[in-house]
């Protein structure tokens, strides 16, 4: 029988006061995780490419002055090895990646290099850490072989990937599994992969993503243009991912190897909605001036229906979504409207984390 994690204590209790190394800390999800780790009282070091000038969550949260920030490429073997082994973390979160599907189509070699070989280099560096107890690698809902099922993929379903981004993340998980079985398991180090759906929340300023594209359009008075409005995706707030990382870390740090492997983090079934519906609901949360326009574009093939089943995380980790999608969209619109008006986003984000998560 699989073990069940006791989630009654505060989320992330095993990380308080511990050393946590985060790759990809200048990105959207990495930024939220680092902010939550700070709130938790962990000692945090991050490794990533520099955040873009201008809009970036890393700047919004002033993370450069709140943690150790190392700006470098994970493909730099000597640098990533030196930085990880010098910090010698208790826990390692690997989120650095090339995360954009359209960019992967344009630059497949770079995408495979970053997502597959970059992950291998992080894993190889981690092998030399004497204090390391656990590691979580962020992947995606797209790691599964595309069957166009109307039901959610489960962790027991086959991995695959019919386009460069999906294939690179599926291959990334194969590398993680090989390293775990060959090196980490014999040393008693627990390793897991987190598979999340379409993550929304304040501070994502990337191109070619629904919510940041909407924000850029709405604040200039332009309509949001949708290219594939009928595609169904599992939408969830970034807070859900933060909680999942912390709960899974607590389980892994309990030295129980049954928690290794892949974990789906997904919203309730009713919140796995078409792009067009989510865009319309976000526009409503933004205000009456926000408009949505459809211009179909089938030049890049995408899965029509992609759902995840997170029964495993709910039953074994005690994880569940913090907010419904409706609430998540309102919270997200509120965050961006504050950012556009020049508010202190570090304070607002910390307040959101503390009010939503029992740290």
Automatic annotation (TrEMBL):
Keywords: Lyase. This is Similar to CDP-glucose 4,6-dehydratase. It comes from Candidatus Phaeomarinibacter ectocarpi. Its EC number is 4.2.1.45. Signal peptide: none annotated. Residues 21-329 form the NAD(P)-binding domain. GO terms for molecular function: CDP-glucose 4,6-dehydratase activity. It is an enzyme of class 4 (lyase). InterPro entries: CDP_4_6_deHydtase, NAD(P)-bd_dom, NAD(P)-bd_dom_sf. It comes from the Bacteria.
């Amino acid at each position: 029988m699989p073990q069940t994690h006791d989630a009654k204590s505060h989320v992330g209790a095993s990380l308080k006061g511990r050393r946590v190394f985060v790759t990809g800390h200048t990105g959207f999800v990495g930024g939220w995780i680092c902010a939550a780790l700070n709130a938790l009282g962990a000692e945090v070091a991050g490794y990533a490419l520099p955040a873009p000038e201008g809009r970036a969550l890393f700047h919004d949260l002033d993370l450069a002055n709140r943690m150790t920030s190392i700006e470098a490429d994970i493909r730099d073997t000597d640098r990533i090895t030196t930085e990880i082994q010098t910090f010698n973390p208790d826990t390692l979160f690997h989120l650095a990646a090339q995360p954009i599907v359209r960019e992967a189509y344009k630059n497949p070699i770079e995408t495979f290099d970053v997502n597959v070989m970059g992950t291998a280099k992080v894993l190889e560096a981690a092998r030399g850490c004497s204090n390391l107890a656990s590691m979580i690698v962020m992947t995606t809902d797209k790691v599964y072989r595309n069957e166009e099922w109307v039901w959610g993929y489960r962790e027991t379903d086959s991995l695959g990937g019919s386009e460069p981004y999906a294939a690179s993340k599926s291959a990334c998980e194969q590398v993680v599994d090989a390293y775990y079985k060959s090196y980490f398991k014999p040393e008693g180090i627990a390793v897991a992969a987190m598979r999340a759906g379409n993550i929304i929340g304040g501070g994502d300023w990337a191109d070619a993503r629904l919510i940041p594209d909407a924000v850029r359009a709405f604040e200039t008075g332009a309509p949001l243009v949708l290219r594939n409005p009928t595609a169904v995706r599992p939408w969830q707030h970034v807070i859900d991912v933060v909680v999942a990382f912390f709960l899974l870390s607590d389980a892994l740090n309990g030295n129980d190897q049954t928690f290794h492997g892949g974990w789906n983090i997904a919203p309730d079934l009713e919140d796995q909605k078409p792009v067009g519906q989510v865009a319309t609901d976000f526009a409503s949360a933004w205000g009456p001036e926000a408009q949505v326009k459809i211009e179909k574009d089938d030049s890049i093939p995408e899965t029509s229906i992609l759902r995840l089943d997170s029964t495993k995380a709910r039953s074994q980790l005690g994880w569940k979504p913090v907010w419904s999608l409706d609430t998540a969209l309102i919270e997200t619109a509120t965050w961006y409207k504050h950012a556009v008006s020049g508010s202190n986003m570090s304070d607002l984000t910390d307040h959101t984390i503390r009010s939503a998560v029992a740290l």
